[in-house]
Amino acid sequence: SDNKASAEHPSPQTPGPNPLADEVRAGLTQTPKRLSSRFFYDAEGSRIFQEIMHAPEYYLTRSEYEILDTHKSDLVTLFAAGGYEVDLIELGAGDGLKTKLLLEHLWENQVAFRYVPVDISEDALEGLVGTLRRQWPSMTVRPQHSDYFTALERLSGETHRHQTPTRRVVLFLGSNIGNFTRTETVTFYQNISSRLLPGDLVLTGVDLQKHPAVIHAAYNDRQGLTRAFNLNLLRRINRELDANFDLSAFGHYETYDPESGEARSYLVSEKAQQVQIRALNITVPFAYGEVIHTEISRKFTRAQIEQLATDTGFVLTDWFTDCKAYFADVVFQK
Ligand code: AVI
């Protein structure tokens, strides 16, 4: 019903909790300053991220595309083994470009499935659903505009409603896992694990540790797309929280530490300045060279991913990589 739809998708005007306001208040009044990368993905941020995925330095998307293209038939065989119906739940679906490879293969092989793309960007989700409906009008697609945690909560109750035995396959592609800290990662996989039944699967896209210069360049592209992506967070705060960040007075700074496997993005204040955030009634001082940490993008070894499976109640059953071994798509079974 309409009521249900509006309860599930509150409009931005709905008064109530404002996660960006809470994040900015907490993150910019502490030292060192920080803001979570989850706020990158407004309409403009999602658009810039799509461009990043096509940038020559950003190998991640191409590597994963190669893996899924090469191994789609192995994957679909795993998903549908035993004649189960497949519930494909994709966390952080974005534009779903890579997932379409799997959907197409499932469809052509007449596997009974339902696709539930989940994303915090409504624009990305609408775009994805639009293309799917045009290409496969009778495919069952149930988009969900929410964060990961709300999506996981819904994973629980749904199992027993199905008539036919169903296998849930959670997709977490594109190195989204890398944007969590280590602790968040373990909590997240434990959370998924506790909601799945034996035989259910999780397919994760993992960026692997490699030559540090290759990784550093991926987050420091020559066209300045990553820079624009990072700075767009300040534009969003200006718009949504009535702030006055001067975008020309902040820069993009990237580090990659090959020992920890962590790429980190920062915004740097290019001068001493004060910024008013009127919706929060605060003034934030910046020293020359002071940074806001905005993103962590972790790179993994196979041993770390095996450990993650063990720590969170899964068995690692398959490990697929691209020809350069830059990236892996990993199957965990509950
Ligand atoms: C979405 N996420 C996996 C991307 C990454 O590589 O960490 C976001 C991104 N940040 C800068 N470039 C791309």
UniProtKB/TrEMBL annotation:
<keyword id="KW-0489">Methyltransferase</keyword>
<dbReference type="GO" id="GO:0032259">
    <property type="term" value="P:methylation"/>
</dbReference>
<dbReference type="GO" id="GO:0052706">
    <property type="term" value="F:L-histidine N(alpha)-methyltransferase activity"/>
</dbReference>
<protein>
    <submittedName>
        <fullName>L-histidine N(Alpha)-methyltransferase</fullName>
        <ecNumber>2.1.1.44</ecNumber>
    </submittedName>
</protein>
<dbReference type="InterPro" id="IPR017804">
    <property type="entry name" value="MeTrfase_EgtD-like"/>
</dbReference>
<dbReference type="InterPro" id="IPR019257">
    <property type="entry name" value="MeTrfase_dom"/>
</dbReference>
<keyword id="KW-0808">Transferase</keyword>
<dbReference type="Pfam" id="PF10017">
    <property type="entry name" value="Methyltransf_33"/>
</dbReference>
<feature type="domain" description="Histidine-specific methyltransferase SAM-dependent">
    <location>
        <begin position="21"/>
        <end position="333"/>
    </location>
</feature>
<dbReference type="InterPro" id="IPR029063">
    <property type="entry name" value="SAM-dependent_MTases_sf"/>
</dbReference>
<dbReference type="InterPro" id="IPR051128">
    <property type="entry name" value="EgtD_Methyltrsf_superfamily"/>
</dbReference>
<dbReference type="InterPro" id="IPR035094">
    <property type="entry name" value="EgtD"/>
</dbReference>
